[in-house]
Amino acid sequence: MSTAVGASLALAAALTACGGAEGPGSPNGSSAKLTFPDYYPADYADLVDESRKESGKLSLYTNLAEPNLAPLIKGFQEKYPWISVSSAGDMSAEEVIQRYNAEASRKATDADLIITAVAGEVWEDVIGGTGILDYQSVEDKYYDESSNPHEGLYAFASDPLVMFYNPQVLPEKLHPTGLKDLAKIVEENPSEFPDQSIITYDVSGFGYAGHKALAEKFPWAWDFYESIAPHTLAGPIGGGDQLERVTRGESLVSVMSSGRTAYTGAVNAEGLIEVVLPDDATIFYNRGEAISKYTEDPASAKLFLDYTLSEEGQALIGEGESTPVRDIPVSESVPRTVKSITAEVGEENVVFTGLEKTPGQKEFVKRFNKVFGLAGTTSQDDNA
Amino acid sequence: MIHYAIALTVVALVLAGLLPVIAQSLADQPLYMAEAAFTWDNYVRLFTEAAFGDVIRNSLVLAVLTTVMAVPMGVLLAVLVQRVGIPGGRLFETIILIPLFISPLVVAFGFVIAYGPAGYVTSQLTRAGISIGSVYSIPGMAVASTITLIPIVYQYTSNSIRRIDPRLEDAARSAGMGPLRLLRSITLPLLRPSIAYSAVLAFTLSLEELSIPLIYGPPARKQFFTSFIFEKGFRSTTVDYGIVGAACVFLFAILTVLVVLQMLSLRKLQRFTTVRGKGAAERRLEVGSLRWLGFAIVLVYALLGPVVPALAVAARAFTKVLSPLISPLDVLTLQNFTGIFEVAGYRSAIVNSVTVALIAAAVTTLLMALTVFVARRSTFRFARQLELVAFAPLSFPGIIVGFGLFYVFLLVPALGSLRGTVLALVIAFSIRAFPVAFGALSPGVLQIGQELDQAARAVGADWWRTVRSVLFRLVLPIMVATYFLLFASMVRAYSEAIFLSDGDSQVMGQVALAMWQSGASGQTAALSFIQIAIAVAATGVGRLVAKGNKHA
Question: Do B519 and A103 touch (CB under 8 A)?
Answer without folding.
Answer: no
